[in-house]
Amino acid sequence: MALCAATALTFVLATGCKGTVSAEIGFDGDEDAGGGSPSGSSDTIDGIEYKSDTNGTLTIRNNTAKDMVLFEGETPAKDTILGGVRAQSSRAFDVSGKGDFSVGGWMIIKGMAASEWSANKENLAKAKVEYSTMATYHAGEYYEAVINPSYTGDYCIKVSNNGKIGIELHKDSFNGEKIAYLSPYKSNQYIYFDDNKSIRLYPVYVYYSTRNHTVSTLSGDFFESRTVVPASATESYMQTYSFPADENTTWNQILETISFPTAYITVSNSVEEGAYFKIGSAQLVAQNGQDAVGGVPVTFEVESTKVGEEKQIALALYNGKVSVPILTADGEIPTIKNGYDYSVSLTKVVPGTSTTVLSDPASYKATISAGTPRDIKSEIEMLPQQ
């Protein structure tokens, strides 16, 4: 989407949600009519750096019409600024300075419009924080997250997390689109939307496992999901939706209701061609946001059941023209169980020889190794405080 250069005359309408809601009238000039900061050729504007970091492994894609300023941690502050991402563009961040970068870890990211930063940088507690996510990192691996314009705007709800594990709110199902991230015991966090249409949110408990250095997700009972109705930010009262619904629920009671909603399949690819992970005609995106497997292993979440289901899964090469079925070492369709870790290796059957026919699926082999179960309680006991 192309952005117009404009000067914005801003009128404060209300403060029903945290931060102000503004109506902007654009004129030719230097300001972004979409609510962002001035969009010039400079890499640094108003103290915020927008240039991608060399060798950055964390990529944030900003699909909104406004420049965004990102912060690390639960509370935005001047000393936690990650940097800026231009409207309708992406930026790579170098997080290799993290102490656990070599073994892998996680971080909370918060985001606000550049205009919010400019207006409230002396008191960021007043700023409207429209974006929240949990990102992971690990030397040699990449992570990508998206700022979706559907979940920014002038309508909002308040949500609270009553548990000791972070929560991702997903749209329409436990495996649906990610809307926002709530830290443990976070109260009255504002979640923003671009309209006031109702939406069903499912709480997914999410944490970075120090045992296997991957993200683990836990889903609760269906009746912990909520149909929420965003209200205009001009409203003086905003209902709070709690997860779980009963604020008096103890953590031990929560543990009795949660389970692994998926299996975790880590795929390695030694073929010099990116591979798409597919179940039937559906193409999955990896935990780190990648849509294909290159030379670095990535993990996919596959929905199944506790007792297991046969899954016809495949890796698609050459833009889908070659489909390689993922089978067991015995050539069988695998049975996949929720809560288990599996590994897949994609190789050429006769690598590096002239007899390999690139267009022939028989020239490739994708083998899945038997899964090992994860244990919820033992993993949670190992968790550091988020």
Classification by helices and strands: mainly beta
Kindly estimate the percentage of residues that lie in beta strands according to DSSP: 35-45%
Gyration radius, in Å = 22 Å
User: Biggest β-sheet: count, sense, barrel?
Assistant: 8 strands, mixed
Spatial shape: globular
Number of helices: 3
Can you give the helix content as a percent range?
under 10%
Q: Averaging pLDDT over every residue, what do you get?
A: 85
Strand order of the largest sheet: 23-22-26-27-30-29-21-24
* Regions with little confidence, pLDDT below 50 for 5+ residues: 1-15, 19-41
The span between the termini is 37 Å
Query: How many β-strand runs?
Result: 30
List keywords for this structure.
single chain; 386 residues; mainly beta; five-stranded antiparallel β-sheet; globular
Give structural notes.
Residues 1-15 and 19-41 have low confidence and may be disordered. The chain starts with a strand and ends in a 5-residue tail after the last helix. 5% of the residues lie in helices and 43% in strands. The protein is built from 3 helices and 30 strands. By secondary structure, it is mostly beta strands. It has helices at residues 114-120, 251-255, 376-381; strands at residues 5-14, 21-32, 44-45, 48-49, 58-62, 68-72, 81-85, 89-93, 105-113, 131-137, 143-147, 155-161, 167-171, 178-182, 189-193, 199-209, 214-219, 226-228, 231-232, 240-243, 263-269, 276-279, 282-283, 298-302, 309-310, 313-317, 322-327, 335-336, 340-348, 364-373.
